[in-house]
Amino acid sequence: MSGYVLAIDQGTTSSRAIVFDDHFRVVGVGQQEFAQYFPRSGWVEHDPEDIWHSVVETVRTALSDASLSASDIAGIGITNQRETVLTWDRATGKPIHNAIVWQDRRTADICRSLQNDGAEELITQKTGLLIDPYFSGTKIAWMLDHVNGAREKAEAGDLAFGTIDTFLLWRLTGGRIHATDTTNACRTQLFDISANTWDDDLLKLLRVPRAMLPEVKDCDGDFGVTDASLFGAAIPIRGIAGDQHAATLGQACFEPGMLKSTYGTGCFAVLNTGSERVPSTSRLLTTIAYRLSGHTTYALEGSIFVAGAAVQWLRDGLGVVDRAEQTGSMADEADDNQDVIMVPAFTGLGAPWWNAEARGAIYGLTRKSGPKEIARAALEATCFQTADLLRAMKQDFSGAKDTVLRVDGGMVASDWTMQRLADLLDAPVDRPIVLETTALGAAWIAGHSAGVWPDRHGFTERWRLERRFEPQMAAVERGRRLALWENAIRRTLAA
Ligand SMILES: Nc1ncnc2c1ncn2[C@@H]1O[C@H](COP(=O)(O)OP(=O)(O)O)[C@@H](O)[C@H]1O
Ligand SMILES: O=P(O)(O)OC[C@H](O)CO
C-alpha cells in the first residue's frame, strides 16, 4: 500500500488539507479561509455549510496539487478546532443552527449560575476542566433551549450533537458514522477523563440528552470510509484528534515533561504529564493529551483565547497593517522608551485567569505612541501570556522544570515574537522545520493506524529543528517587563 496520508485540519479561521508522503514531506496542499460571524458582542459563529464546502474543496485541491487520486491515499486523519458545537437533524443531515465557536461567550450567565450552585468541584473532578463558556456543554444547552422544538427532538433521538470532527465524519461517511475521539470528547464538559466515558451526572447537570451524543473512540480508531462519490474512491478514515492534541503528537511530545505551544488564532500550551492525571492548583486544565490503542496519556493545558487574533485585529480592525508579517519589523522599530502594554482580552481571559467578562485594554499610551508600539504590544502580549502559563505548569508538575518549548502555528513565522518569547520565558524556544505540526500529528495517527507509517519512536527520530531561540534579555529587564504585564492584568481584571 502507498505511504500517502491526507490530513484534514479544520481550524478556526481556515480549513486546510495536506497530503504527506511516507517521509512526512508535504506533497499537496489546499487551504481556504471562511467567514466569521459576530452576531452580537462576545458571540462567534461559523456557517456549517461553509466549513463543509471548504473541507471538500481543500481535499480536492490537495489531491490535485499532489497529482494523486483518492485511491492513492492510505488513510485520512482529521484534526479540528475544539469545543465548537454543532447539532443537526439525523434524518436530513441539516444543522439546526450555526456552529457556536469555542470563543463565544454567550453562555457566561449559565456558567455563573453553575458556579454559584457549586458545580465546579464535580466538573473538575470528572473532566479536569473548569466552568467557562469556552467549553461545549453550556453551548449545547443554549442551542437546545433557543431553537424551537430542539430539546424535544434531541430527547427523542432525532438530533445529533457533534464537535467539528464529528460533523465532518458524519458528512464524509454519507451519514453512516456518528463518532468522535477521546480528545474532542474530553473538551465538552460531559466526559469523565478517568473512566473514558460520557458521564450521566454531567449530562444531567448540563441538561444534555444522551441520545444525541456520538460514540467515543480512541484517536487511532477505525472511523469508516469516505463516501466514494466525494473524492472518486472511498478513503479509510484512520485517525481523529483535536488540533492541540494532534500538534502535541506532531511535535513528537511523547515523553512526560515535553511541552508544545501552538500560536494560531489563540495559543494553546500542552504539557505531557504521562499516564497519570495531574490535578492543577494553578487553574490550568487537566486534559487527555491523546489516547492510542487503549492507552491514555494525560496533559496539563494552558488555553489563551487571543494570540494571532490580536494581529488579525491590527490588520482588519485597526487597519495599521496590510499583512500579518509586517508586525515583526514594526515591533523591531518600536520606541524602546515607551512601555505600551496590550491585554488582548477581546473575548475574556483564559488560563490562568478564567474571566469571561474581562475586555481588552492598552496601557501606557503617550502622545508619541503609534502603530509600531501597538504592534509590538500585540505580539508581546502573546509572550507574556505564555510566561504566565509556564509559571503555572512549573508549579503544578515538577517534570516541567527545565522544559524547552516546541512551537508551531501561523504566528511562529515571526522571528521577533519567538525571540521575545524565549527572553520572557527565560527558556529555549524550538521551531521545527515542519510548521504544519497539527496536520502532521493527525497524519501520523492515520498513517500509523493504517500500517504505512512508523511507530512513535521512528516518528520521533525524524522530528527536525529549524531554529532554536535562546534567551538573551537581561534578567533585570525581564523582571521589569513581567511586572508591567502583571500590573496591566491586575488593572484589566479590576476594571
Ligand atoms: N508573520 C506573522 N506574524 C504574526 N502573526 C502572524 C504571522 N503570520 C500569521 N500570523 C497570525 O497567525 C494566525 C494564523 O495562524 P493559523 O495557525 O493558521 O491559525 P488557525 O489555525 O487558528 O486558523 C493569524 O491570526 C495571523 O494573524
Ligand atoms: O483553530 P485554532 O488553531 O485556533 O485552535 C482552536 C482550539 O482548538 C480551541 O480550543
Task: Give an overview in words.
The structure is a single chain. By secondary structure, this protein is an alpha/beta fold. The protein folds into two domains: 4-243, Nucleotidyltransferase, domain 5; 252-432 and 464-495, ATPase, nucleotide binding domain (Nucleotidyltransferase, domain 5, 2-Layer Sandwich), CATH 3.30.420. Helices cover 36% and strands 22% of the residues. The chain has helices spanning 48-65, 108-116, 120-127, 136-146, 150-155, 164-172, 182-185, 200-206, 228-231, 243-250, 308-318, 326-333, 371-396, 415-425, 437-449, 456-461, 475-494; strands at residues 4-10, 14-20, 26-33, 45-46, 73-80, 86-89, 99-100, 159-162, 179-181, 191-192, 197-198, 215-217, 237-242, 259-263, 267-274, 285-292, 295-304, 341-343, 361-363, 405-408, 429-432, 465-469. The strands form seven sheets. It has a seven-stranded mixed sheet. Strand 14 and strand 15 (267-274) form a beta hairpin. Helix 11 (308-318) packs antiparallel against helix 13. It is globular, with a radius of gyration of 22 Å. The relative contact order is 0.13. The model has no long low-confidence stretch (mean pLDDT 94). SN-glycerol-3-phosphate is lined by residues 11-12, 81-83, 102, 242-244, 264-266, 268. Keywords: ATP-binding, Glycerol metabolism, Kinase, Nucleotide-binding, Transferase. One of its GO terms (biological process) is glycerol catabolic process. Pathway: Polyol metabolism; glycerol degradation via glycerol kinase pathway; sn-glycerol 3-phosphate from glycerol: step 1/1. Key enzyme in the regulation of glycerol uptake and metabolism. Catalyzes the phosphorylation of glycerol to yield sn-glycerol 3-phosphate. It catalyses: glycerol + ATP = sn-glycerol 3-phosphate + ADP + H(+).
